[in-house]
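re: the backbone from monday

yeah here it is again, tokenized this time
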């Protein structure tokens, strides 16, 4: 049975105890199965207060992140691993079992060149160590591919699939995102089918980052590709309404959506359920 989640940035501009609990409450109230915690600052994350909030809301949690510049994995693998282990610890403390996002690179770091074989090998080696740590905590890891304006390391899903295969860990999967696919892929259907054997997590995000179904994403091709690829993993609504300066700079979101958070969340979930039923997922 499909699970529907929502990124907390639909409701809040940063994750604090108070704001996090509010997002958890809203996600549960609107009928999501889990909330995706933007666990960007693991050293500041306080897990204990959220355990009760998640229980009260009747939902679970996953974690997504972007590595900070100082922990860009190709250049600083030890710092990247240390940061990711901190995220794993925080996620495990709230009972979460899935960590994903930009786990192999920092957003906005560029060399002016495509990734080298050595850079990719550093990622393969380091992710292997991270997946070992994750497995000890019962956590699956998802490697996200994002557009060329945010990283040079992993843009197309085929690039991510290659690294997932090279690492060879049974708890490492590919994390897709429709917003980034809209920029990088030659269509939506075939890339999803081609990576179906490693695809385990997907962000459902519109071309303008607002209300899904109102932009240029070809949602029929997305759902047709997921159906034909046999996808049975979670779907995560990723719209942004309120954002802190760090996130705005990272994803270049200079114009936030006009819709209110509750509308983005409730209508977005309704759209995902409708399309899932339409394609019998």
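seq for it, each position gets an aa:
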């Amino acid at each position: 049975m499909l699970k529907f989640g929502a990124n907390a940035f639909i409701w809040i501009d940063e994750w604090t105890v108070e704001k996090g609990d509010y997002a958890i409450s809203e996600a549960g109230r609107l009928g999501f199965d889990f909330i995706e915690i933007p666990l960007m600052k693991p050293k500041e994350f306080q897990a204990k207060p959220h355990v009760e909030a998640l229980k009260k809301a009747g939902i679970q949690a996953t974690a997504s992140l972007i590595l900070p510049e100082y922990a860009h994995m190709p250049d600083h693998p030890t710092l990247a691993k240390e940061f990711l282990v901190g995220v794993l610890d925080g996620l495990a403390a709230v009972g979460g079992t899935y960590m994903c996002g930009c786990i192999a690179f920092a957003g906005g770091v560029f060399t002016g060149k495509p990734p080298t074989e050595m850079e990719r090998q550093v990622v393969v080696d380091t992710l292997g160590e991270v997946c070992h740590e994750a497995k000890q905590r019962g956590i699956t890891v998802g490697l996200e591919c994002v557009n060329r304006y945010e990283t040079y390391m992993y843009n197309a899903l085929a690039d991510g699939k290659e690294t997932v295969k090279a690492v060879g860990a049974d708890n490492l999967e590919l994390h897709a995102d429709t917003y980034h696919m809209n920029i990088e892929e030659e269509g939506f259907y075939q890339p999803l089918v081609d990576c179906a054997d490693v695809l385990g997590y997907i962000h459902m995000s519109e071309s303008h980052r607002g209300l899904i179904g109102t932009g240029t994403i070809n949602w029929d091709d997305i759902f047709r590709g997921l159906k034909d690829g046999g996808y049975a993993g979670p779907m995560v609504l990723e719209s942004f309404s309120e954002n802190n300066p760090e996130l705005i700079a990272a994803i270049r979101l200079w114009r936030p959506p006009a819709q209110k958070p509750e509308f983005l969340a409730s209508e977005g979930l309704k759209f995902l359920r409708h399309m899932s039923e339409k394609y019998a997922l």
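The longest strand covers residues 98-106. The mean pLDDT is 94.
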